[in-house]
Design goal:
The structure holds 2 protein chains of 2 kinds. By secondary structure, chain A is mostly helical. Chain A has 24 helices and no strands. Helix content of chain B is 22%, strand content 34%. The chains are: A mainly alpha, B alpha+beta. The interface between A and B is medium-sized, with 29 and 37 residues.
Chain lengths: 554, 375
């Protein structure tokens, strides 16, 4: 027998009251503190009271911002709802040629950022663009104003075509979780397929659909590039304008806080509608829905329903970009272009690894200290994804500028050294802002990875004398490797696409694929912007297919 | 014999509002002893196990392992520092490691040679020498369990905890596993506690049984003690079929409404008592040998024996009584059967588990046949 060494246990004894505050709680607190900074900043500055510019803005353009943002939300939500739900229903319940391909192809538009589809469509419908040119070549002379899409309705439509996959993916997952028995019992009771849809399937899928639409709304409110390009003033462009054109941070903060109110309202409503009802049927042995057999014309309708959004959201804009890139690649692709790719990829990879790392620590801390407080802390830390990039930028920049100012003053006073800004405007600051925004993107897949692995492994390991950190390394991480990698991949793509945050936080003269694309397009060099745009899209495709698989599994 | 595990006045509840899931548990386990923690689901057996292992914290009370406090009001020793081994219900073998690595996992602070020897030794002990290189999913359920046992035994824990070790096994395998497990634990002189909801597992495998009900230990003792001398109705009925009879003590026996039960031990103080008598202690006999009789109402053939439910009519009331007869006895429905009671096995219960019910009906409902509560 191994003897328990005397005193061995005594060393590890700790005061019971303090026992809960182990090192993991402190890690989690630090992460929450980090991520909570922007929000705290905005709340803090709100107490400063409104500036004159804000008063001026609120009397003149604010109503316009509010109206545009709300109309945009309504319009995009409505279109994505119709596109997302109809395609999800058709794909999960009907049999038609190409169904398997559409199942994942319908997700492809998600790889096209809103600002890229915006200028792609601006080019397509332009007077010199392919549509009008072709029509003129055929001897037709249509009214150019018919093709005018650079307005609110236009931006609604193009955004909806790349955002509907959010609704599609989540709704499809819900439809495929609904058991055959539920739908078949509806039909045996005499419902037609359409009545089955409206009276059974749709109500059961409602929480999923609303969750999808609220993701769409988050994206709409985050968008800067598309609305800016189409000349539509929203909250987000307002924040940029107040900050950079009018030089009034206070007004930017007031706009941000208003925007936050809208966001929390959306999130609150989403929570509320879920209510207490259980909509998911998890009865064991549930079989997938048997597909409706359709007549040939109905099959054609299905194919058209699925093809249309893929065509307008992915194929057409990508073809346009490819066309442009053939013309301009020789101009764009040079040494500095590879530098650009390197910048973007290393930034995205670094952020992705950090986000995955912090998420693992956060989740594990909650796992080994499963108290109410820790769970709230975990939820709080991943709130950033709901907050638009521009708002995060305001909230991160302010404290960093303050730090910089105090640092330079201190250096000046104590050592007589004159320095510029040391922290803000660095890559570090940019990555910090990315982490605030994208921590949730890594957190959720890793969390569900952890949930799939039995707690008994952790306990078995600790029972065999292995401390928490070593257990994480030897047992948990190898078991959730897949989730961690996919989490990092998702963050990678999101960082690559992210525009408003990068525009504000990037160091001087530092460009990423996203900022370069937007800059070129804004400078009337749309054709030149197509090469970086295509790289962003191409990088986004792989993990997006992956994402669709992941969501339909969980 | 020295005490390896000492649990003192342990209390535990999960949330503030809940009732205690562990109430005032006191339990000692001596070195080399194999304790069966028996109880229906929800009785708190697994919670008690997890409290010992350190995966849960008690609200009150103390646990000592080898005389050292591992948890009390001031001290909490983390699970990895307790030297307590555990075999989980679903085994929790790490799926990304082979059996060898799994068994090595808990061995710290030894040289490579020592580890290699020890792994060989425990794998041999559980009969898995040739499976060292296999991964858990390549083993059968019984083999996985033995691998988990080997892993838990390798670091020579002060005490081994087994959570429902027999619940995932089919009936044929189960008997073998019970025997193997007992042999291995005895050969290694391992002090162990296993949790089970199956009375047969506990009776056949444990040195001592502690019966848990609503987080409280009802009775603990050897399997024979618990079976033959239950202290209350719950214990009596949990361990098997039993006839519960309420009676008055008279000189030379008990006066009950099924008739006079002769018993020399009974004193004649006219005291109200509750008697527990197992069906096998009631045997059919010829008319002259006993004044006790009833009409056969239900006969269930069990192969090696049969159970006969008798209806005993006394005045206006009827009572049911189960007796056990060997399978050759021919009884038809409605037939009057005389029976006698082995007086050595009449157990007077110390306390009545259902005091409220007993007070309501002092002698009206004299006989009640209780079956083991289904789990």
């Amino acid at each position: 027998m191994l003897l328990i060494k005397r005193g061995d246990a005594a060393i590890s004894r700790s005061r019971r009251g303090l026992k809960r505050i182990n090192i993991w709680v402190i890690y989690a607190l630090l992460i929450a503190l980090l991520v909570g900074t922007p929000l705290a900043t905005i709340v803090y500055f709100l107490f400063d009271g409104p500036s004159d510019t804000w008063k001026h803005l609120s009397e003149t353009v604010l109503g316009h911002y509010v109206a545009n943002s709300l109309l945009l939300i309504l319009g995009v939500s409505a279109i994505t709802l119709i596109l997302g739900v109809s395609t999800a229903w058709v794909v999960s319940t009907c049999n038609f040629p190409g169904r398997k391909i559409f199942e994942w192809a319908l997700v492809l538009p998600l790889s096209v950022p809103t600002y890229i589809i915006a200028f792609a469509y601006a080019g397509i419908t332009d007077y010199t663009g392919p549509i009008q040119t072709t029509l003129r070549n055929w001897g037709l002379h249509p009214d150019p104003s018919f093709f005018e899409i650079m307005n609110l309705q236009g931006v609604m439509l193009v955004m909806a075509f790349v955002l509907y996959p959010y609704v599609y993916v989540i709704t499809r997952a819900s439809f495929s979780r609904q058991t055959r028995n539920i739908l078949e019992s509806g039909r045996i009771l005499g419902s037609s397929p359409s009545r089955t849809f409206f009276s059974i399937a749709l109500p059961i899928a409602r929480p999923a659909i609303v969750a999808g639409v609220s993701l769409v709304i988050m994206e709409v409110l985050n968008d800067y590039g598309a609305v800016k390009y189409f000349g539509v003033s929203t909250f987000t462009t307002g924040i940029f304008r107040a900050w950079f054109s009018l030089g009034d941070v206070n007004a930017a903060i007031y706009l941000s806080s208003l925007l936050l109110v809208v966001i929390f309202l959306v999130l609150g409503l989403e929570r509320l509608q879920r209510g207490k009802a259980r909509f998911d049927d998890n009865s064991p042995g549930s079989k997938p829905i048997s597909k409706f057999k359709l007549s040939k014309p109905m099959q054609a309708v299905c194919v058209a329903t699925c093809f249309m959004p893929v065509f307008f959201g992915f194929i057409l804009p990508t073809l346009q970009l490819m066309g442009w890139s053939l013309d301009t690649a020789y101009k764009v692709v040079d040494l500095s272009f590879f530098r650009l790719i390197f910048n973007s990829f290393s930034l995205a990879a670094g952020t992705a690894m950090l986000c995955a790392f912090l998420s693992v620590i956060l989740i594990y801390a909650v796992k080994i200290n499963p108290t109410f407080f820790m769970r709230v802390l975990g939820k709080f830390s991943v709130m950033g994804y709901a907050i638009p990039g521009a708002v995060i930028a305001v909230g991160v920049m302010m404290p960093l500028l303050f730090l910089d100012k105090s640092l330079t003053t201190w250096l000046q006073n104590s050592f007589g050294i004159t320095m510029g800004l040391l922290i803000s405007g660095t890559i570090g600051a940019l990555i910090f802002a990315y982490i605030v925004r994208f921590l949730a993107v890594a957190y959720n897949p890793i969390d569900s990875g952890f949930k799939k692995v039995s707690d008994f492994y952790t306990e078995a390991s600790r029972g065999l004398g292995v401390a928490p950190l070593a257990t994480l390394w030897k047992v948990n991480l190898p078991l959730i490797k897949g989730s961690v990698i996919s989490a990092a991949l998702l963050v990678f793509v999101d960082v690559l696409k992210e525009l408003p945050l990068t525009l504000i936080m990037r160091p001087f003269n530092f460009n990423t694929l996203a900022t370069k694309t937007f800059e070129l397009a804004s400078d009337e060099m749309v054709a030149e912007s197509s090469v970086p745009a295509l790289i962003i899209i191409a990088t986004g495709i792989v993990p997006i297919i992956f994402l669709s698989k992941w969501i339909s599994k969980t | 014999m020295s005490t390896v595990l000492d649990i003192k006045n342990l209390y535990k509840k999960y949330t503030r509002k809940d009732a205690f899931v562990i109430r005032d548990v006191n339990l000692q386990v001596s070195k080399g002893e194999l304790l069966g923690l028996l109880g229906e689901s929800g009785s708190g057996k697994t919670t008690l196990l997890r409290l010992i292992a350190g995966f849960e914290e008690p609200d009150r009370g103390a646990i000592l392992v080898n005389g050292q406090v591992v948890v009390d009001a001031n001290v909490f020793v983390a699970p990895e520092k307790r030297k307590v081994g555990m075999v989980f219900q679903d085994y929790a073998l790490f799926p990304h490691m082979d059996i060898q690595k799994n068994v090595c996992y808990g061995l710290h602070g030894y040289s490579k040679e020592e580890i290699k020897d020890r792994v060989k030794e425990v794998l041999k002990l559980v009969g898995l020498q040739s499976f060292a290189g296999r991964y858990p999913h390549q083993l059968s359920g019984g083999q996985q369990q033995r691998a988990a046992l080997a892993r838990a035994l390798a670091p020579r824990p002060s005490i081994l905890l087994l959570d429902e070790p027999f619940s995932n096994l089919d009936v044929v395998l189960k008997e073998q596993v019970r025997e193997d497990l007992r042999n291995i634990l005895k050969r290694t002189e391992t002090t162990a506690i296993f949790v089970t909801h199956d009375t047969k597992d506990a009776l056949s495998t444990a040195d001592r049984i502690a019966l848990l009900k609503d987080g409280h230990i009802q009775q603990s003792g050897s399997p024979k003690e618990l079976y033959n001398k239950p202290s209350n109705i719950y214990t009596a009925s949990f361990l098997g079929k039993v006839n519960i009879i309420q009676a008055l003590t008279k000189p030379g026996g008990y006066e009950s409404q099924i008739g006079f039960i002769p018993c020399n031990r009974a004193n004649g103080t006219d005291q109200k008592v509750t008697l527990a008598i197992r069906p096998e202690k009631l045997a059919p006999c010829s008319e002259g040998h006993s004044d006790l009789y009833g009409a056969a109402q239900l006969i269930t053939y069990q192969g090696d024996h049969q159970l006969i439910t008798l209806q005993v009519i006394s005045g206006k009331s009827q009572y049911k009584l189960v007796i056990k007869a060997n399978s050759e006895v021919k009884v038809s429905k409605g037939e009057v059967v005389h029976f006698r009671i082995e007086e050595d096995y009449i157990k007077v219960l110390d306390t009545c588990w259902y005091p409220a019910a007993a007070e309501q009906s002092p002698l009206e409902k004299v006989v009640e046949t209780t079956e083991k509560p289904r789990t």
